[in-house]
Amino acid sequence: MTATARRELAEFLGSRRRSVTPAAVGLPAGANRRTPGLRREEVALLAGVSHTWYTWLEQGRDIRPSRQVMDALARTLRLSPAEHEYLLRLAGHGGVPAARSVDGVPAHLQRLMDALSPSPVYAITSSWSIIGWNRAYERLYPGVAAMAADDRNLLWAVFTDPAVRDLLGDWDADSRSFLAQFRAEVGPRLADPEVVDLVARLQAASPAFREGWASHDVDRFTSTERRFEHPVVGTLVLEHHQLTPADAPGIQLVVYTAVDGTGTAAKLTRLAG
Prior knowledge:
This protein has 273 residues and is of the alpha+beta class.
């Protein structure tokens, strides 16, 4: 575990501990409880570890928690499957792959994205830099082509571009969802220079990002419907998919397909026209 991973593990455990009520684990609330959620000694008791050891863990000390202890803490803190997986990856039990350097989109993936039109498609790296897209996506979000290369990042666009705020049908929910998924993906790589720079710039630029980042929320990606409010064709209801090419594991393709019965397919054809 790196120092950055230990610090993130400590902060993540603390944030989850404060979110669990005593009643949720069968403990009385008590009249003199000054700390929200559980106390450290309560977590330690329920997880079967010493109070001192657990305190060290939340202090980011250089200790080696076992998989069994991490599983016990996940049960005690009522972690979701995504949070449990994140905890294991931070502690070095998740087999986190090293980030792969990506220079751009290979020609065959660009041809694939183009062939999927009129569905909007774009390609991102493991740090969510946008490195390619098809015509349909540029018509959906024209700002992608105008962004400076260093700023062409999905999170940067979501949290700093007013056009994206207007485009997303439920910006509050969508931005939180994107941020939780990003943290789950990059958490064990928070010391990577590219991630450090992006997070620092976003914290300086966006109060909403600062608040969301401080929550330590994590979630897995799941395909879901998203609503867009486009200034030309109006409401679009799209299903959000994410694919990793077998021959380009450092790249993810994000594909938006029209939801049947919403009139979106015809609007996409008109938009991509």
